[in-house]
Amino acid sequence: MNPQKFNEQILNNALQMDASVNFQLNGNMLIMPCPWEDEKQVTNGERVNYKAGVSVDSDGRTRVKRYKDGSKGPLHETLYETAHGAVKMTRPQIRPYNGRRRMDEEFVYVTFKFPKKYGLALTKALYEEEADEIMSYFKTRKEETIWK
User: Fold this and answer.
1) What is the CA 74 to chain-centroid distance, rounded?
2) pTM
3) Which end of the chain, N or C, is surrounded by fewer C-beta atoms within 10 Å?
4) Is 74's pLDDT higher than 80?
């Protein structure tokens, strides 16, 4: 199967997996109960809304909304990782009125997480190696890192 055609099918047509599950174009899912369960009442006669955009009607029809639109997404993007450390940067902030980046609101974070079972000597040795590796990464970056 050509993966390009599969992606086009998902983006252009609503999909129906079987008689009870429908994937809609906007990302929502509609789950219909089986026909032989029509006489059963799932809720107390009214729609029940749950967290994460799930709502269940009294007849069992379930709607699952896609993930929230307009959310900011992840706050940090990972630039570089070592075995026990990571370099993350806040997502670029772009001014809507002139399209320029807000450089004063972009920060780079370096975090290390070493297990306690390593002991102090091993932790210090690994820290020095990984700190050198991260500093060499900073030297090869195309954007200048401003240290405060």
Assistant:
1) 6
2) 0.48
3) C
4) no
Identify the sign of the CA torsion 19, 25, 31, 35.
negative
Q: How many CB atoms lie within 10 A of CB 60?
A: 17
CB 33 within 8 A of CB 20: yes
* Cβ atoms of residues 108 and 145 within 8 Å: yes
Q: What is the pLDDT of residues 105-131, one digit of tens each?
A: 788 899 999 999 999 999 999 999 999
For residue 115, the model assigns a pLDDT of 94
Beta carbons within 10 angstroms of residue 134's beta carbon: 19
Please state, in angstroms and rounded to a whole number, the distance separating the CA atoms of residues 80 and 61. Answer: 45
- Which pLDDT does position 95 carry in this prediction? 76
144/127 Cα distance (integer angstroms): 24
Q: How many residues are recorded in the chain?
A: 148
* Per-residue burial over 97-114, b = 16 or more CB atoms within 10 Å of its CB, e = otherwise: eeeeeeeeeeebebeeeb
What residues are paired with 63 via a beta bridge? 30, 55
CB contact at 8 A, 25 and 58: no
